[in-house]
Protein: PpkA
Organism: hydrothermal vent metagenome
Amino acid sequence: MFLSTIVSIILSTTVTLYGLSEMQFDDNATIVKKSKPIMIDGKKMLPLRVLVRPFSNIYAKNSLKSDIVMSNVPALKPFYVYHKPTPEEIELEDAWYQVGTNTRGKIVGWIQAKDLLEWKQTMCLVYTHPEGRKPLLMFDKESDLQSLLNLSEENRTKKVEEYYRAIAENQIPKNFPIKSIEPKRALDWKKEFYFLPILDFKAVEFGNREARILKLTASTNSRADARESTDITKNDSYRESANVKRTTITKKLIKRLKLDIVWVVDTTVSMRPYIDRTKAVIRDVSEKIAQSSDTNIAINFGIWGYRDNRLDIPNIGYTTRNYTDDLVPIEQFSQILESVETTKVDSVDYPEDLFSGMNNAINDTNWRDNTMRFIILVGDAPSHKSGHKWNLSGQDEKTLRIMANDRNINIFAIHIFNPKAKKFQELALEQYKTLSTNKGNTQPSFKEVLSTDEDQFQEFTDDITKVFTKSIQKFKEYNFASTNSNEKQSTHTDANKKVGGEMAFSEDAKEVDIDSVIAKDVDDNSSAKALAKNMFRSALVEWIGSQGDTKAPRDIVAWAIDKDLENPSIPSVEVRLLLNKRQLDSLATTLDSIITAGTQGSVSGEDFFSLLQATTAMVSRDPNMIRQAKRMTDTGLVPEFLMGLPYQSQLMAMDNELWDSLSVDEQTEFVDSMSSKVDAYRRIHDSPEGWIRINPDDDPDEYVYPISLDLLP
């Protein structure tokens, strides 16, 4: 036995050295072929995975008469495929998959084809903000969707309007091509995780834009109705719930309505008069809303100050400072604001570390649960770019905007323009406008004011603050009189109960359209007011959807396009990649190596892949593979889960020729972009928000985060 064990160890070592790790050995040192998972068609390294539908069983053999080895498998649990049925077996409805829990041959058993869905990538979809677009239509057949796209714009628009009208009026004809529809109310994947895995996709041109036709499946968690199809030709209940307006709010929800407003302010010496003006606005607003206890409790405030790198600039005081560890009511905030002072020394150059201030405010503010979240950014200078030694956050405006979106944070930006600093204006405008382009708005929530016009600055800040505070106050004080024409009884809320077969409407079930309430006594003469009202409205629509009982489509397979069918410039869904923390770490490690090589290459002018080869010892990759690579995808550095995604990646296409064609500034910009993404990954990794437990028994390390494709390299 001892000798056979030694032989087995030696043979195992030899097998590993010669790349034969697919073999394993029994106790007699006999080579036994190890089962290998099936790869995705056309791929060498990407194994095929499947997702289990709710309430399914796994059997010992491919027969319902065999023993059940796993019953009621958790919904959406992923498995690797070790045997795939033939098309003939699928057609005869006698199709079985053999599945396992890993790629190393750990086979669990057999599951019927009808109880699972093939998942060629860990890609899924999330709906974009519903404002400004129509709900996503999901077609039964790809051919029906393709025929619609082939129509002229005029005829396509007419046909789409017919579809929406038929659904709204419950006049669905026979052979209706639409299988299901997105609810009108917003859905928040962080609150009620809905699962829209992409089963297949292809790029098409639509409205002179690149778009993607997507084969998707819709599923939810293991609740009682998880296997209840939302086919609108058969399920009237779902169709009715999907048609509920997104702009109505019940009295019950108004009671829960809360608002967090956080100021992010440049506190360098040039900002002193504007901070004084902000204090005056807060004092005025404080006196008004203090009279309403409900409003006072509902709104909390906070403030972050930012300057520049305190380690390199003597006496500047701090880089960023949080003056409110916990967000506070306005009376207390007014007192705290008095302690905010500007530095007595100037920065070394004109830009400040604005991105560190925004990064801290987005990620480190102690936001309350279930609140509408707003940031008001005030500054007179742009931020140091990503990669600059005094940008301590490592972020850029694009990654900060993505992180704000994922945390449902809306940003209003005010840039104080000093004509003497005109050469910095273009950069400041790009940064401030990108940061303030909020979900559901077609234009940034942004205003620019001359540094010589302090009165206009105070007017803008007063307008913005009062839109928020007065709107909340109007909701809290709204009189739900039965004679009000804007009101009706909600039929879709759990506030109603059936009594003796009749629906009994509670006081909490009364609802009102938000457009009849939002700051209705605030005129729109100021463009700042109009922008603030639009931002508040979009945020409220999203908040209402996250608080209610809106149900996502489920238990269907359908076809859709990722653009609004009436306005192709508006995306209807966003593709995301589900990554766990190990995968996120792997991606960050890979990019760190690329950043090191890119930084050295932009300085020395050396061959990019030769420099990349020198970094491989840190990430345990084969140097020869990198030396022989033609493109980044051939190096073995790129994690498999990034292969085959439906987006254009500069990193994936990178080769020596492309690298050499870039100027030094462009090479630096490429490296800085990778660096900001790595910092974003680490922020996501360490944040408790957004991580999803797909299966009830998942360990925290198995939780996944839906990473936006815009955050991928």
